[in-house]
Write a structure and sequence with these properties.
Elements (H helix, E strand, L loop, with lengths): L4 E17 L2 E16 L4 E7 L3 H16 L7 H12 L7 H21 L3 H4 L6 E9 L5 H13 L4 E5 L14 H19 L4 E5 L6 H10 L5 E5 L7 H11 L3 E3 L6 H9 L5 E2 L8 H14 L11 H10 L6 E4 H10 E2 L8 E3 L9 E2 L1 H7 L12
Parallel strand pairs: 4-5, 4-10, 5-6, 6-7, 7-8, 8-9
Antiparallel strand pairs: 1-2, 2-3, 4-12, 11-13
Helix pairs in contact: 1-2, 1-3, 2-3, 5-6, 6-7, 7-8, 9-10
């Protein structure tokens, strides 16, 4: 029997957060677009997209994409994805439209799991029932001493893989004035402080969030090469494929990228150019589970490993548990605080591993009362992307 879609609704959210690390307490906010897809029989699936303008993504879903899905069979995720692609991204656009597709696709997989009584990770293949995690702890508001303290705390909690931010919006902020050379000199000292604090054993990742040019990314990579960096994530602006390939060749440092890419051809280009050592599709951005699974297949064909980048481990854990080519999932400490405000009964990592739920669908449910209160707050006006 078809599982007919009867209603689709998106809610833009700018979630206020309090976060503590290294003895420093910080107030911030992260934006997200929460989506619900309801069937004629009253079954509800939920999805999410983030690292975008939440009100724009919600507007696309409520005005264009959602109405296009009404009447379709929620079980036919390929048909739905194909329809949304040609509706929103017919010329290969990779922006807001693909964020909307991602949120809706995640909701449809949640619906499918609930209709079939299976968790999403089993529907995707059931390769493993738990996934390894790394934790993102090293944010730009922490000074060197606080970074070191926060890193030691993460190791004490059982995390053996740590990620810290570098670059800190360097290109965007260069006219403050804030010379890029000064930024990466300080970054090198910060990386060294963390490595000295935790010793040689934990893996250490650095992430520039596309905030550096090729020259300064290379200088930073060379200056911290003796700190045994496991990978350099999004090292250069625009995920420039040529620059990332050059960086790998000239520094010998592993490069990871892909969390903010909307369409599969961008991953193809990275792989064929030898630009990455890890691909990082994120299901709440990169077209949902339907496209992320295909990207994983490409990566496997190239024998290039995957890792979750861009946070949102509660959704991405299903991809990495479902597929044999899955990898490590990002436990981003600020994004996880947002998840705790939006959802009930979320799993928590233990000794560096995250157990997958056996409950149908995504295995966790929205806290609708909390979401309704947050929805009353002003949107982020572009400032909630983290």
């Amino acid at each position: 029997m078809p599982v007919k879609i009867a209603r689709v609704h998106a809610t833009p959210l700018n979630v206020p957060l309090e976060y503590s690390a290294g003895g420093v307490r910080r107030s911030t906010s992260l934006s997200a677009c929460h989506v619900e897809v309801e069937t004629a029989d009253g079954l509800v699936g939920h999805g999410l997209t983030a690292i975008t303008e939440e009100e724009v993504a919600a507007g696309i879903i409520n005005a264009v994409a959602g109405p296009a899905l009404v009447g379709m069979d929620a079980m036919n995720h390929e048909a739905a994805w194909n329809k949304l692609y040609w509706l929103l991204c017919p010329r290969g656009q990779t922006g807001y439209g693909m964020h909307a597709v991602a949120a809706l696709d995640v909701a449809l997989w949640d619906l499918k799991g609930k209709a079939l009584g299976q968790p999403v990770w089993r529907l995707l293949g059931g390769a493993r029932s738990k996934v390894p995690v790394y934790t993102t702890f090293g944010f730009n508001f922490l000074d060197r001493d606080a970074l070191a303290e926060a890193a030691r705390a993460c190791v004490a909690e059982g995390f053996g893989h740590l990620k810290m931010v570098v670059g800190h919006g360097a290109l965007q902020r260069r006219d403050e004035p804030r010379p890029l050379g000064e930024v990466i000199r300080e970054d090198a000292l910060r990386v060294r402080a963390v490595r000295e604090a935790v010793g040689a054993q934990p893996s250490l990742y650095i992430d520039a969030n596309c905030s550096l040019d090729g020259f300064h990314a290379e200088k930073l990579a060379l200056s911290v090469r003796d700190c045994d960096i496991a990978f350099f994530e999004e090292p250069v602006t625009q995920n420039d494929v040529r620059l990332m390939a050059d960086l790998r060749r000239r520094t010998g440092m592993a490069v990871a990228a892909g969390q903010n890419e909307g369409l599969a051809f961008r991953f193809r280009d990275m792989l064929t150019a030898g630009a990455v050592d890890y691909v990082q599709p994120n299901v709440v951005i990169s077209g949902g589970f339907t496209q992320a699974a295909k990207i994983a297949g490409m990566a496997e064909a190239y024998n290039v490993p995957m890792a979750n980048g861009g946070a949102f481990p509660l959704h991405n854990m299903h991809l990495h548990a479902g597929l044999a080519h899955g990898g490590r999932v990002e436990w981003h400490l600020v994004a996880v605080e947002m998840m705790r405000k939006l959802y009930r009964d979320i799993p928590e990592p233990r000794d560096g591993w995250l157990e997958l739920p056996e409950a149908p669908g995504l295995g966790f449910e929205p806290d609708r009362a909390s979401i309704a209160e947050i929805a009353k707050l002003p949107c982020s006006a572009g400032k909630g992307k983290g």
